[in-house]
């Protein structure tokens, strides 16, 4: 993470996560502070190939629909040789149906 300019305490947290990664991680903060950049760096440091990183972003209406969440079920249930990373950018833009679908996926 030498190319990123981040606070030393944030770098320590990232390094700690990489040393012992969990199944999920929530990055949050105000828009523009670099959470997407940190997510990309984490994926790279977890040795995920670019094809193994799935981004879900708001559509042209600035919302994430349930139809964008449903494909995550297949991604999360298939066994892969390398880490599979799912990044939901601007998750706060999910509508209630998408939120419920994601919650169901996480519960299973």
Describe the protein's architecture and organization.
- The chain is mainly alpha-helical.
- The chain contains 5 helices and 2 strands.
- The chain has a two-stranded parallel sheet.
- The termini are far apart.
Q: What's the arrangement of secondary structure elements?
A:
Blueprint: H1 8-19, H2 35-45, E1 53-56, H3 66-69, H4 71-77, E2 85-88, H5 96-107
Helix share, percent: 40-55%
The coarse silhouette is: globular
The N- to C-terminal Cα distance equals 33 Å
Instruction: Describe the main β-sheet briefly.
Output: 2 strands, parallel
What structural category arises from helix and sheet content? mainly alpha
Indicate the proportion of strand residues: 5-15%
Task: Please give the number of β-strands.
Answer: 2
Mean of residue pLDDT?
A: 87
Task: Give the H and E element order.
Answer: HHEHHEH
Please give the count of helices.
Answer: 5
Low-confidence stretches: none
- What is the radius of gyration? 15 Å
Q: Give the strand order of the largest sheet, numbering strands 1, 2, ... along the chain.
A: 1-2
Summary, kept brief:
The chain contains five helices and two strands; from the N terminus they run H-H-E-H-H-E-H. The chain is mainly alpha-helical and 108 residues long. The radius of gyration is 15 Å and the shape is globular.
List keywords for this structure.
two-stranded parallel sheet, globular, mainly alpha, 108 residues
């Amino acid at each position: 993470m030498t190319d990123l300019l981040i606070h030393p305490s944030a770098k320590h947290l990232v390094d700690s996560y990489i040393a012992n990664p969990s199944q999920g991680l929530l990055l949050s903060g105000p828009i523009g502070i670099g959470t997407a950049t940190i997510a990309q760096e984490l994926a790279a440091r977890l040795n995920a190939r670019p094809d193994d990183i799935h981004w879900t972003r708001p559509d042209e209406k600035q919302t994430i629909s349930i139809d964008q969440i449903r494909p995550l079920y297949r991604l999360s249930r298939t066994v892969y040789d390398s880490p599979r990373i799912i990044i939901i950018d601007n998750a706060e833009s999910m509508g209630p149906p998408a939120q419920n679908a994601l919650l169901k996926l996480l519960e299973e």
